[in-house]
Every structure is written in structure tokens, then in C-alpha cells.
């Protein structure tokens, strides 16, 4: 019976996270109340939410942390088997697009609320973001080692590349003329062509 209760607890916790992510993304963190989250989860009691999370900030923190942990784990697993740098970059881009396609929430809005978290939680999220970006930075350096000689240059290029990847979810239509794999291929080619030696 303990195992059944544990699974039920995890299912309810995930329901709260899923419904909160949609509400935060649609109307913002400040405009979303605990009562609205409870209602979205088909509960009339705010106390039910507090059984799983001490406050609304804890929900936001958990959403950001678990998303980044998942993303980091998946992109590392995607690029690890590849030996060729360009193929690893391609695998990274495709896996990122799959992640954002599967988790179609407004990540930009969620991460814009980072300042609302306590300092220690902000730092934990920032560390995870840096770890995520480091995977891409290392791939860029592997494609063109000369870029790494200028730390400011490679940092900016990493953020530009991430921007091209991360915002795809805002316009990509899985029923459109191009598949996710097609878009990943085009994105990779664009990045690779832009990683020619810089003067």
C-alpha cells in the first residue's frame, strides 16, 4: 500500500506543476493565485496545494529546476555517442527542439520570473542554466577551436546559438511543411556556416 500512496503523491505533485506551468505561462506568476492552481487541479482547497509545496515560489522553483535538469540530462545523452563535432552539434540541436516540442510552455516567461525566487534558489537555477549552456559552448569550441581563444566571443556566440534554438517553439508548427528534424537540420547548417573562422 505504501508504494501505491507514493505513486499517487507523485502524480498529484506533477499535476500541480503541470497546471501551474500553464497558468504562469498564460497569465504570469503574479496574476496566478494558489486558489486558481487548486481549481485547475480540480480541488477546492488551497490547503491541498500547501501539502505539496510551501508557497507559490516553491512551485516556480521546482518547475525551472526540473526542466533544466531534464534538458541537461537529455542533451548530454544525445551528444555523448557522437565522435564528430558537427554531428554532436546536430544531435544537440535536434534534442533541444524535441524537448521544447514536448514541453510546450512559455519558458521565456517562466525564466523571466527568476528574480522572484530567494537568492539561494536563483543561484541554483543560474548554475543549471550555465551547465546547459556549457554543453553548447563546448560543442561550438569543438567545431571551431579557434573561437575559444576569445572567451567573450565564444560566450556571445553560445547565447546567439541558444537564442536560435530556444525560440523555435514559439513558431514551429508540427503540421507544417517541415518536420522537426528538417528544422533542426536547417538550424544546424545555419550555425555551422556561421562558425567559419572569424576575422
CATH superfamily caption of the largest domain: Tetracycline Repressor, domain 2
Low-confidence stretches: none
Mean pLDDT across every amino acid position: 86
CATH topology of the largest domain: Tetracycline Repressor, domain 2
Beta-strand percentage range: under 5%
What gap, in angstroms, lies between the N and C termini? 66 Å
As for the number of domains, it is 2
The number of E-state strands comes to 0
Rg over CA atoms, rounded to whole Å, is 19 Å
Level of helix content?
A: over 70%
Give a structural overview.
- The protein contains nine helices and no strands.
- The longest helix is centred in the N-terminal third of the chain and has 26 residues.
- Helices cover 71% and strands 0% of the residues.
- It has two domains: 53 residues, Arc Repressor Mutant, subunit A; 139 residues, Tetracycline Repressor, domain 2 (Orthogonal Bundle), CATH 1.10.357.
- The radius of gyration is 19 Å and the shape is elongated.
- The relative contact order is 0.10.
- The protein is an all-alpha fold.
Considering the chains and any ligands shown, give keywords for the structure.
199 residues; mainly alpha; Arc Repressor Mutant, subunit A; Tetracycline Repressor, domain 2; 2 domains; 71% helix; 0% strand
Amino acid at each position: 500500500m505504501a508504494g501505491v500512496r507514493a505513486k499517487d503523491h507523485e502524480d498529484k505533485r506533477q499535476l500541480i506543476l503541470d497546471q501551474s506551468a500553464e497558468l504562469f505561462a498564460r497569465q504570469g506568476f503574479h496574476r496566478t493565485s494558489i486558489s486558481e492552481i487548486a481549481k485547475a487541479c480540480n480541488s477546492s482547497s488551497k490547503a491541498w496545494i500547501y501539502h505539496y509545496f510551501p508557497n507559490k515560489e516553491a512551485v516556480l522553483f521546482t518547475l525551472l529546476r526540473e526542466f533544466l535538469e531534464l534538458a541537461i540530462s537529455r542533451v548530454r545523452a544525445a551528444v555523448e555517442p557522437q565522435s564528430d563535432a558537427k554531428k554532436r552539434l546536430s544531435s544537440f540541436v535536434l534534442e533541444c527542439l524535441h524537448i521544447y516540442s514536448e514541453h510546450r510552455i512559455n519558458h521565456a516567461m517562466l525564466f523571466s520570473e527568476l528574480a522572484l525566487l530567494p537568492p539561494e534558489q536563483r543561484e541554483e537555477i543560474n548554475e543549471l542554466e550555465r551547465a546547459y549552456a556549457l554543453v553548447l559552448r563546448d560543442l561550438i569550441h569543438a567545431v571551431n577551436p579557434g573561437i575559444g581563444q576569445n572567451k567573450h566571443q565564444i560566450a556571445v556566440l553560445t547565447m546567439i546559438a541558444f537564442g536560435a534554438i530556444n525560440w523555435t517553439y514559439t513558431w514551429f508548427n508540427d503540421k507544417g511543411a517541415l518536420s522537426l528534424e528538417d528544422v533542426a537540420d536547417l538550424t544546424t547548417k545555419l550555425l555551422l556556416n556561421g562558425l567559419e573562422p572569424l576575422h
